[in-house]
Design goal:
alpha+beta; Lipocalin; 3 domains; eight-stranded antiparallel beta barrel; three-stranded antiparallel β-sheet; 17 strands; elongated
Length: 395
């Protein structure tokens, strides 16, 4: 299950860029601003008929770039006038809704583009040559997220190729050796499990965890705030559970990227400790009979609709007061209505000492209702209603 908000961020952050990409051929460049190496992409869109009727005949353009020294995105927008691309970095302030802090003036050259950059009271020459994503070898090829970027998001594919993995401290948690990992250019972290499970299983588990780490680094480095400055993207490994046969790793993010309000969320990754395969909640229990129908190997809308309804039935039986917001104990989520099936069909979940903890999918407008502390499926329930295809004992 993918996190409800973390990966939604990327589409939200670059709506203007993606809009431009869909309407015209994009270009990817590498080069220098002064003596500083950069990667840049930008596109142009011809003026629409409506724009022309309004007296705006210039093409618009959008893009972004990063310095190889930081890998953090800077967004660009501007116009194409008489063959010259004028791309600006704009900041919003209370005194001025739209203030230009950087400006590129670029014209085509044999290799790509050249021109000048102006900002901070100085001007520097710019030289850009066209490139393709495959011209640079990404050391993380083979990770699913990176393979997707290579095919669909070449700018991010190039960015992640410059990430330098660091192995930090080694710790022992729950009798397992854990290596902490980070990237030199990012604040995200992840764990690598080095003992306690079969080596083949650990290889698959750690491959997935590093894949998640790469995605989170890309999210952080692509995050710009609502004012156009660098955004605030904080990720951490919130917790983990290492059972004899199953394990969970939970990742928490808190971010402010483009949108007017901060957001947060937790995603857990759950594994079979013998095979290293990721587990779906319905691999553990089907929440009743018959088993949920999978059509052509795909869990479709009907599947999740039925799953949500079954989960609500079970949880209302286990937690009748909490599900309807009538809990009389001192909980911050008093008054929250958890009876909507969609909240549970796409819930995040993780193993714990007592059972499976559930975290319903809650919209930002109801953020105080996220991550309640009571939705637990006890192991006594799970073992009584286990999926007959499950070949291992839990936990």
């Amino acid at each position: 299950m993918k996190r409800k908000i973390s990966f939604f961020l990327i589409g939200l952050s670059f709506l203007p860029i993606n809009s431009a990409r869909s309407q015209s051929e994009g270009s990817l460049f590498r080069g220098l601003i002064g003596t500083s190496p950069v990667i840049m992409e930008f596109w142009s869109n011809p003026a629409s008929d409506w724009d022309k009727k309004s007296g705006h005949d210039d093409s618009t353009c959008y893009g972004r770039y990063f310095y190889l020294s930081s890998l953090s995105d800077t967004k660009l927008q501007g116009i194409v006038k008489n063959g010259e691309f004028v791309l600006e970095v704009r900041r919003w302030t209370r005194s001025s809704e739209d203030s230009t802090v950087e400006r590129f003036k670029l014209h085509k050259s044999n290799a790509g583009f050249q021109g000048e950059w102006a900002g901070s009271g100085k001007t520097l020459p710019v030289k850009l040559e066209k490139m393709s994503a495959t011209s640079i070898k990404n050391p993380y090829d083979g990770y699913p997220a990176v393979d997707t970027m290579r095919n669909n998001e070449p700018f991010d594919y190039l960015k992640t190729s410059f990430l330098v993995l660091k192995r930090d401290s080694m710790r022992v948690y729950q009798a397992r050796n854990v290596q902490w990992l980070s990237f030199e250019q990012s604040n995200v972290s992840m764990i690598e499990i080095t003992s306690g499970y079969d080596s083949t299983a650990l290889q698959k588990i750690n491959h997935k965890l590093i894949d998640v780490m790469i995605q989170e680094a890309r999210n952080e480095l692509s995050c710009t705030g609502p004012d156009g400055e660098l955004g605030d993207y904080q990720e951490s490994v919130q917790g983990f559970f290492f059972g004899k046969n199953v394990l969970s790793v939970s990742v928490f993010v808190n971010f402010t990227c483009d949108g007017p309000h901060p957001d947060f969320g937790t995603e857990s990754y759950n594994f079979n400790g013998h095979t290293g395969d990721e587990l779906e909640l319905t691999d553990i229990t089907t929440f009743g009979d018959p088993a949920l129908a999978v059509h052509n190997g795909t869990r479709d809308y009907d599947y999740y609709e039925e799953l949500g309804e079954r989960m609500v039935t079970i949880l209302e039986r286990l937690y009748p007061k909490e599900m309807n917001g009538n809990d009389t104990t001192d909980h911050e989520d008093d008054g929250c209505d958890y009876s909507t099936p969609d909240q549970w069909a796409y819930a995040s979940w993780s193993f714990s000492d007592r059972g499976i903890m559930l975290s319903p999918s809650i919209a930002h407008v109801s953020a105080p209702c996220r991550d309640p502390d009571w939705p637990l499926l006890p192991y006594r329930y799970l073992n009584k209603h286990r999926n007959p295809k499950l070949k291992i004992k839990i936990p």
